[in-house]
Specification:
With 160 residues, the protein is of the alpha/beta class. The protein has two domains: 71 residues, Helix Hairpins; 71 residues, Chitinase A, domain 3. 39% of the residues lie in helices and 24% in strands. It contains three helices and seven strands, in the order E-H-H-E-E-E-E-H-E-E. Strands 5-4-3-7-6 form a five-stranded mixed sheet. A two-stranded parallel ribbon has the order 1-2. Strand 3 and strand 4 form a beta hairpin. Helix 1 runs antiparallel to helix 2. The radius of gyration is 21 Å and the shape is elongated. This is Transcription elongation factor GreA. GO terms for molecular function: DNA binding; RNA polymerase binding; translation elongation factor activity. One of its GO terms (biological process) is regulation of DNA-templated transcription elongation.
Length: 160
């Protein structure tokens, strides 16, 4: 897995989520499976199958978090914001529009209310990396080529 750049807050949240899933989460799933088994025939036991499905999803999430944490590089919010890089908030204006939309350039694991995330490996993210305020960049979208102007770059803490 390639390196994933995330904020310290997201790193800490993933560590906490992993701890909760591997302790309390596993205990709760085990109890649910045990309770469902007590209901009888497992072949037609919807509760049992639902609990086993939930267990599978939880274990997949545990593996996903472990992989992210193993390949994570914490990006400081205090680095200069003179060009687009992971960890910054970028204001974009699409060609032909007046509205400015704000995005966080970073891992999909970054969750901030009211702020969409653009992965640095997505077509838009790749086009934006290294761009400075005033620059126009083009990227391929499902409906064709789109052009956006970088109108502002700032640290995450100034996100709107």
């Amino acid at each position: 897995m390639s390196e994933v750049e995330i904020s310290q807050a997201t790193y800490d949240a993933l560590v906490q989520e992993l701890e909760e899933l591997t302790t309390q989460g596993r205990i709760e799933i085990a109890k649910a499976i045990e309770a469902a088994r007590a209901l009888g025939d497992l072949s037609e036991n919807g509760d049992y199958h639902a609990a086993k499905d939930a267990q599978g999803k939880m274990e997949a999430r545990i593996r996903q978090i472990q992989q992210i944490l193993q390949s994570a590089r914490v990006v400081s919010a205090d680095l200069p914001t003179d060009e687009v890089r992971p960890g910054v908030v970028v204001g974009l204006r699409y060609e032909g529009e007046d509205d400015v939309e704000h995005y966080l350039v970073g891992s999909i694991e970054e969750r901030h209310p009211g702020l969409e995330v653009v992965s640095p490996t997505s077509p838009l993210g790749e086009a934006l990396l290294g761009a400075r305020v005033g620059a126009w960049v083009e990227y391929e979208a499902p409906r064709g080529t789109l052009k956006v102007q970088v109108v502002e770059i700032g640290p995450l803490k100034t996100a709107r």
